[in-house]
């Protein structure tokens, strides 16, 4: 008997159709979802139509620690991307030793621990990308005889590289970069070096000598300042470049008005040093003004993309909210019709006054609970919708591409009208339980008068 009652309670819980998740405050929802793993958070968001969109904006601090006790024996693997990994001295690179056909490797957000040199040595690797790496070692060694493309961004530590077949190099950062082999096949080099730390004029000149076979060279303007100070020592030396076809020089950043004194002016001596060996090379100089204009255009385009995405997300949320309201209204209508039918049956059967009174009191209690739920849910939903609308409005007040401004403002105007319509429906839904509660009061009062 007890087991039957327990089963009945479980079935009752499973048959509840109310969206309980949406009844909770925003802060509590975000806190709860951020404390569980991504898989379960996604499943939870799917249970609530209101949170199906907002769940994607929650940041999950999931960290999964995997310690490899043996090398990866993956002979068919050709492409590998690793993020948030830590290597320990030379032991860390052993994971690649049995990936004999590995051609493309990307390491992002990685750390090298220990005090010895760290080496990546692979005979068939052709494309390597290193991003956001840190190590306090003597050197990071790369030995890859078949490597064609090398990209290094924001890695902190000394690099010693042996890549005789390298054709493309992109280096962005402030750490030292040295090649131990001649780069006979080098075609394109893009250097974006922060010279405020370890890069002196002599080190820059040494690097330029190592990449002397390059045909297409891009340099940041900030390299000119330390190189200019070193020109007296190398003024009698010939230009290191004899095959260069194109030289592009651009500033890494635009100083503010207070930092105007930090602007670098192109030195004629440095320019002659770079181009004297290739008189037919094409020179492209990007000014601070051109870079500033380019950055402004990029920001304006990014603002437009973000605004359009947010408007699309909010429109989708409004459509789901309208569907929820309609579903709720239909349930309420069905419930009211059932109450009217029960009331009419009570009249024909000369319902007992006490039973009628108890039934009405139960209805009133349910209405009171529904009033609180509707008010809390309506306020929470409305606050969220309006906050999203305000965020979009702030975005539209920033720089936008002229070609997209009119269309974005028109979409925003239509969205405001849609928000006004949905909020009005939400407010109306909040009033319905109050109206039903008032009707119960009146009917109960009428019953009391008729029985006295």
Outline the structure in words.
It is a single chain. With 452 residues, the protein is of the alpha/beta class. The chain folds into 3 domains: 1-64, no CATH class; 79-287; 298-451, no CATH class. 48% of the residues lie in helices and 17% in strands. The protein contains 9 helices and 13 strands. The chain has helices at residues 2-14, 26-34, 38-46, 201-210, 224-234, 268-275, 288-348, 353-396, 402-451, and strands spanning 79-88, 104-113, 118-121, 127-135, 140-143, 149-156, 159-162, 168-173, 177-179, 188-193, 216-220, 246-250, 282-285. The strands form 2 sheets. It has a 9-stranded parallel sheet, with no helix packed on it. The two termini are 44 Å apart. This is F-box/LRR-repeat protein.
Mean pLDDT: 78
Q: Tally of extended strands?
A: 13
* Rg over alpha carbons: 35 Å
% residues in beta strands = 15-25%
Q: Assign the structural class, choosing from mainly alpha, mainly beta, alpha/beta, alpha+beta, or little secondary structure.
A: alpha/beta
Distance between the termini: 44 Å
Main β-sheet, spatial strand arrangement: 1-2-4-6-8-10-11-12-13
Share of residues in helices: 40-55%
Overall geometry comes to: elongated
Outline the biggest β-sheet. Answer: 9 strands, parallel
How many domain units?
3
Unreliable segments of 5+ consecutive residues: 2-17, 346-350
Helix and strand sequence: HHHEEEEEEEEEEHEHEHEHHH
Give me the number of helical elements.
9
